[in-house]
Amino acid sequence: MFSFLRKKKSPKVLVIGLDCAEPSLMFEKWRDELPTFKRLMENGAYGRLTSAIPCITVPAWSSMLSSKDPGTLGFYGFRNRADYSYDNMSIATGSAVKEKRVWEYLGEADKQSIVVGVPQTYPIKPINGCLISSFLTPTVQKQYTHPNELRYDIDRILEGREYDVDVRNFRTEDKDNLLEQIYEMTEKRFKVLNYLIREKPWDFFMFVEMGVDRIHHGFWKYHDPEHHQYETGNKYENAIKEYYQYIDRGVATLLEAVDDNTVVLVVSDHGAKRMDGGFCINEWLHREGYLVFKEEMPTEGLVNVEKMVIDWEKTTAWGSGGYYGRLWLNVQGREPQGLVPKADYEKVRTEIINKLEKMVDHQGQPLNTICYKPEDIYREVRNVPSDLLIYFGNLHWRSVGSLGHKGIYTFENDTGPDDANHAQDGLMIYYDPKQRLNGKQLSNLQLMDIAPTILQLMEQPIPGDMQGKAIKP
């Protein structure tokens, strides 16, 4: 009789996070072989999601969920300079995240969240709901859940098997063992997720599966005919596709547990692409006279640049390795033994940019390297960024920081076998059972749009300092 007085039920949101999921594979190449994702796309909307710069796990997920760029967050990778000394580095754990992420806003509104495997959630901070920390967790022998008692539920669900926050080593030649580890980790994750989504109260539910990233780095050359190490008909040709299909089936079990009042978002923090080789950034800086050592260059084996005795009084710049390159200038009044006068800072930086962007590859073809200045791409620049962020070969090449390669190009990764680099675009699928979107393709989506979208869907105010905009398909 008085049903019209009933309070409208507030929407719930389920976010399926797939670290490194590549849009060209899910949207195009394997779309018809991924029935769950295909259904979400065909009944919803989808598009490429431009990642942060740099497009790596840390800082990308925190940028997505805080709607703040890496400069505002104040970290630019897993390892960051802690100050302007030469050797003081810090790891960007959860303690480095000073900006609120979406579940913290929701908690203030008395909304309950379940958060599983989202990077930079260790050390554990209490939330209004349940949390299981991510791949940077050093051990599950210490507290890795909130509340702490949740770990005993996990032990029971997994029948005493240890929960895996990550695989032990994805840069390995033992591909059979790697594949086994990835599947075991993901199987355990979905067991726990299926328990949580059905047995615990929640308004917002989000998980991130790292297995997609690990299988890309471990197996990309086996499936991509354009990779220089690809061999037709190899044993692992379908390894990545079959894992995507496994994820697809796992997601289907989660969707069975949600009602028509739940909006589903599928997101990745960046994509993936073949890795053509490595550019030896410190080798190049040394040859160009920017990096000077007090000792002879290594003639046998590889040496980490931190192990070399650098002549700082004669050094202009040095760099670091990773999926993207970082380069610092040795500036007077900033670094302890700075060489570059502040008045010459921009001139020297521009000179290095011009040289790098004109570089050719080992076959004499343009490398298409892109250099970014932090102040050009971030709203604020906090803590200690590099003076340049460098996408070698527009991310078809990684940055190699070690010395002893006997050249500036290398085709062996100095941190272990790795076939893929990250791509700037990740993906997003938006499915609202109450909207008929009919496979609408979305454009101009940016990573930082996700947090305001979640808040809007859950009828919460969007803070004015968020840098993204709510997506309205």
Topology:
Layout: E1 12-18, H1 23-29, H2 35-43, E2 45-50, H3 57-66, H4 70-73, E3 79-81, E4 89-91, H5 102-108, E5 113-116, E6 129-132, E7 145-146, H6 150-157, H7 175-199, E8 204-209, H8 211-223, H9 239-255, E9 262-267, E10 271-274, E11 277-280, H10 281-287, E12 317-320, E13 325-329, H11 345-357, E14 370-372, H12 374-377, E15 388-391, E16 397-400, E17 409-410, E18 420-423, E19 425-431, E20 440-441, E21 445-446, H13 450-457
Parallel strand pairs: 1-8, 1-9, 2-20, 2-21, 5-6, 5-8, 11-16
Antiparallel strand pairs: 2-19, 3-4, 6-7, 9-19, 10-18, 11-17, 12-13, 13-15, 14-15
Class by alpha and beta content: alpha/beta
Q: What helical percentage do the residues reach?
A: 25-40%
Q: Evaluate the radius of gyration.
A: 23 Å
- Characterize the biggest β-sheet: 10 strands, mixed
CATH topology of the largest domain: Alkaline Phosphatase, subunit A
* CATH architecture name of the largest domain: 3-Layer(aba) Sandwich
Query: Uncertain runs with pLDDT below 50, 5 residues or more?
Result: 1-5
Q: Could you give me the name of the CATH homologous superfamily of the largest domain?
A: Alkaline Phosphatase, subunit A
Distance between the termini: 36 Å
Which CATH top level class of the largest domain fits? Alpha Beta
- Nearest-integer average pLDDT: 96
Number of discrete domains: 2
Q: Tell me the number of helical segments per DSSP (H or I, 4 or more residues long).
A: 13
How many strand units?
Answer: 21
Q: Beta fraction of the residues?
A: 15-25%
What form results from the Cα inertia axes?
globular
